[in-house]
Each structure stands twice: as structure tokens, then as C-alpha cells.
Known about the structure:
Elements: H1 20-23, H2 26-42, H3 56-70, H4 82-86, H5 93-109, H6 114-125, H7 128-131
Protoporphyrin IX containing FE (HEM) binds next to helix 3, helix 4 and helix 5.
Amino acid sequence: xxxxxxxxxxxxxxxxxxxxxxxxxxxxxxxxxxxxxxxxxxxxxxxxxxxxxxxxxxxxxxxxxxxxxxxxxxxxxxxxxxxxxxxxxxxxxxxxxxxxxxxxxxxxxxxxxxxxxxxxxxxxxxxxxxxxxxx
Length: 135
Ligand code: HEM
């Protein structure tokens, strides 16, 4: 995906109107979707256990930053790579799919347009191999 920023714009958090990030509502719009995703994930008895010791405030920030970057928003070089972030957590294919379903529901909940919704869902789905830790 083409990046819209140049190095001297690194600290400019304004959303370029041509990006999916902007069409999602910028940082605030992404944040709403992330909050809803984790609200659903932590209420799901099959997933809640993964987050029992997690600081959910920082977790929300991190996923929102990662999605923002992926959707053409500001870069977030402080984040761990997906594989490193999930290594050793024993995340199964089933649990990955459940999380993806919660993301789709969260996008639907906030009335995100199908085009952005599909883009974000497709981006999430391509992380499966890095995240799943099942032999
Ligand atoms: C492509 C899909 C996913 C993305 C983009 C994603 C994104 C992230 C990010 C950005 C972090 C924080 C990285 C950092 O510390 O810099 C993280 C950590 C984590 N993720 Fe995911 N995640 C995905 C799938 C999942 C799934 C399916 C689960 C569980 C079913 C999960 C559970 C966790 C847990 C438990 C942590 C660590 C929380 C802690 O530090 O306590 N993730 N993820």
C-alpha cells in the first residue's frame, strides 16, 4: 500500500483525505472500532483469557496505531512486529477466526463503509500466519 507521508511529515497526524485511514474517520474513527473489537473480545469467554493480564488501555492504543499505519495514517515504528507480539501465546486458528469475526462485527456496529471494512478485514486476515501459534 502506498504511504502518503514523507519523512518531514512524520509528526503530522492530520489524515490525508485520500487514505482509507481518513475514510475510517482518522485516529478517532479507528479508535472507536478498536474499542468495540476489544469490548467484544474480552466479553467472549473463548478469548477473554488471553487478555487477563493485559493493560487494555495500552493494548487499545497499540492496535489503533498499527491499524492507522496500515491504512495510510501516521507510522508507528515503536510497535513490535506481529510475530514477536504473539509468539508463545498459543493462539489457535479458531481463536484468530473468532477475533476476525469480532472485528467485522465492530466495523458493522460503527457503520463503516463496506470498502474500508473489507480493506481492514483483509489486512487483519493476512496476519494469521504470524499470529497463530498452533502446531
Ligand atoms: C492480525 C491480527 C492481529 C493484530 C493486527 C494484532 C495486534 C496486536 C498488537 C499491535 C499488539 C501489541 C504489540 C506491541 O506490544 O507492540 C498485540 C498484542 C497481543 N495480542 Fe494481538 N493482534 C492480532 C491478533 C490477535 C489474536 C487473534 C489474539 C488472541 C486471540 C491476540 C492477542 C494478543 C495478546 C494476548 C497480546 C499481548 C497483550 C499483552 O501485552 O498483555 N492478538 N496484538
